Amino acid sequence: MAKKKKIAFSVLSLILIMGLVGGVFAWFYLNESTYVDFGSDIVCEAGKSLEISADGGRTWNAMITQTGFSSETQDITGDGINLYRPTKMDDNNLPLSYEQAVVYNKQTKKGDYVELKLKFRSTSPMDVYLSGESYISPANPTKEGNIFGAFSRDFIAGATRVAFIENGVTKMIWAPNPNYQLTAGNDGMFSFNEFGQPEVYRYTDSNYQVQPYSEEDYANSRFVAGSTEADTAYAKKSARLFSIQPATDDYGYADLTLRIWFEGTDREASHALAGGQVKVKLKFTGIDKSEITADQQQKLDRVTCSNGNLSGLTEGMSSSVDGINWAIYPETPNLSGRSKVFVRYDETASHFASAVKTINIS
């Protein structure tokens, strides 16, 4: 059944400070400790119609605050569900073996990543996305004292990842700073460009193999680099993190797990940035509007590719070969040398974007 047109929205923000203090980044020197400091507080602020709980639903508030903490840690890698830390390195300082990364423990004050288990509730139907107002940025971008170059170590923000997990499924991994570019020189020094070229993003899979995120990951928003651009009316690039569908005059509920870590396969996971501190704001937006119509779905189902040409495209659709850049009908991307093309109905003021259709190019 198609959902009603937008009648309500909600915004929630999660703000925290995290940093890597002292030592060196573990991807390079496994035997030395590093530390992560999650500031003085973790603050969640809810907007219209949405409440949040950090204690399993015992208490609900428009805003919750958790005290910050510090932890011994190191940069790790993984897909959000399976996270690993290296245990042995080769001569090029690349991992040869791994063990399971561990979540931060308040009692031992040790751990490799932060995990927040949150519950949401609302009396209004909505689908919830990561707002474009979210950011992970240097706590002090002009801080001095880096022996490796004239830049702040706080740009370690470029290696930060956030996984959004619902019911054991990673809905989205977010890398907020694709244009941070750290470059090593021949003299042991580094240069840093805040507005450099985007990198190829990778992770380590369950077979301990380093894999690039695929075009399908980008097309389906399973991996998002940079701002999601989502607001109170449009989901834009964000994946749908969860849905709330309350019964009449009652609450609807949803659970979401957040995992935050420094990704060792990132080019900013470097000893040149170890000791930096970043600030994090995660803001969620809830939107209620319709899915595409049955007629639109049938038209999308009929789109095909033959002899290197797309057919069946119509008004409101767009297509892409890399999952990042989308050509709006009647424009189409260059299919030469490509094995797949992605097609969807774009989001409008009254309808969400459709699910992405993947077409193999023969």
Helicity, in percent? under 10%
Number of domains: 2
- Secondary structure category: mainly beta
Beta-strand level of the residues, as a percent range? 35-45%
Mean pLDDT: 83
Biggest sheet: strands, sense, closure? 7 strands, antiparallel
**Dominant shape:** globular
What gap, in angstroms, lies between the N and C termini? 35 Å
Q: Give the beta-strand count.
A: 28
Radius of gyration: 22 Å
Detail the poorly predicted runs. 1-8, 20-47
Tally of DSSP helical segments: 2
Q: Which sequence of SSEs, written as H and E, runs from N to C? A: EEEEEEEEEEEEEEEEEEHEEEEHEEEEEE
Describe the structure in your own words:
The chain has helices at about 215-220, 295-300; strands spanning about 10-20, 35, 40-45, 50-55, 65, 70-75, 75-80, 85-90, 95-100, 115-120, 125-130, 135-140, 160-165, 170-175, 180-185, 190-195, 200-205, 210, 225, 240-245, 250-260, 275-285, 305, 310, 315-320, 325-330, 340-345, 355-360. The chain is mainly beta. The protein folds into 2 domains: about 10-285, no CATH class; about 295-360, Immunoglobulin-like (Sandwich), CATH 2.60.40. Strands 1, 3, 5, 11, 12, 20 and 22 form a 7-stranded antiparallel sheet that branches. A 6-stranded mixed sheet has the order 4-10-21-13-14-19. Strands 26-25-27-28 form a 4-stranded antiparallel sheet, covered by helices on one side. A hairpin with a 5-residue loop joins strand 15 (about 180-185) and strand 16. The longest helix is centred in the C-terminal third of the chain and has 8 residues, at about 295-300. Residues about 1-10 and about 20-45 have low confidence and may be disordered.
